[in-house]
Specification:
The chain has 248 residues and is of the alpha+beta class. It is built from 9 helices and 9 strands. It has helices at residues 2-13, 40-49, 73-82, 150-153, 164-172, 176-186, 193-209, 215-229, 233-245, and strands at residues 19-21, 54-58, 63-68, 91-93, 99-104, 112-117, 120-123, 128-130, 139-141. It is globular, with a radius of gyration of 18 Å.
């Protein structure tokens, strides 16, 4: 277990939020990837409270992931057809023999399952992956993170952008990370709006705790995004407060 914590500490020091996961890949901690942290004390405390033999890393913050599942023949066919169309970027072998291909985070990349082909999934903001190199699996390519190819981004229906007043308001304060959270909340699908808002509030809480943003400002931005998504103000306020406390 000590080597897993050490690997988690190294990832955290590089800015990757991490969380303990069980061998079945499910989060060991109470709130799943909402509990992911980067600071050393938080990582040690998280593994002490909820030990896990695998390291989970939320997507959509530093990287997104293209997940090629080796169990699907269609995934092999798709990958062999398109592999030469991808730039060099970081790639890991997974436990099942598949691939995790990592790209720099792009707010337009959603989490998807089988949209490109059966067994070809994507993980963007709101998802997480297992960091398989920490479990002994190969780093196939150690290249810097490349941007997603435009042709692949075009496979996904463009999302409606968050209201311009949110973009201007956040950009004026230099909080581009908050703009990404607001956009995700504003574009959340019905049935996922509360969970997306709670996730965004949890992420924002870490920034507030680290002195990167004023809590009142963050709450105002998230409330406006929730209003655009169609959540009633009282319900949105309650969800944001829960996220800021770190519990549902």
């Amino acid at each position: 277990m000590a080597h897993i914590v050490n690997d988690a500490l190294r990832l955290g020091a590089q800015g990757y939020p991490v969380l303990p996961c069980r061998m079945d890949k499910r989060p060991a901690c109470q709130h799943g990837f909402y509990d992911a942290v980067t600071d050393a004390a938080g990582i040690v405390g998280l593994w002490r409270a909820t030990p896990g033999d695998l390291i989970g890393v939320p997507a959509g913050i530093i990287f997104d992931c293209l997940d090629i599942d080796a169990k699907h023949s269609t995934a092999h066919v798709w990958w062999n057809k398109h592999r030469r169309d991808f730039p060099a970027t970081r790639a890991h072998r997974t436990r099942s023999g598949g691939l995790h291909i990592l790209f720099s985070a792009n707010a337009a990349m959603p989490c998807s399952a089988g949209k490109l082909a059966p067994g070809v999934d994507t993980r963007g903001l709101g998802g997480y992956i297992i960091w398989w190199p920490a479990a002994g699996y190969s780093v196939l390519t150690d290249a810097p993170l490349a941007p997603w190819p435009e042709w692949l981004l075009a496979e996904f229906t463009p999302k409606q952008q968050a209201p311009q007043q949110i973009n201007r308001h956040v950009q004026s304060r230099g909080h581009n990370w908050l703009r990404g959270l607001a956009r995700t909340v504003a574009n959340a699908a019905k049935g996922q709006r509360n969970s997306t808002l709670f996730w965004a509030s949890c992420r924002a809480r870490h920034a507030v705790d680290n002195g990167k943003a004023d809590q009142d400002f963050v709450v105002d931005v998230l409330l406006e995004a929730a209003r655009h998504a169609g959540l009633p103000p009282t319900e949105a306020q309650r969800t944001i407060q829960s996220g800021m406390r770190g519990r549902p």
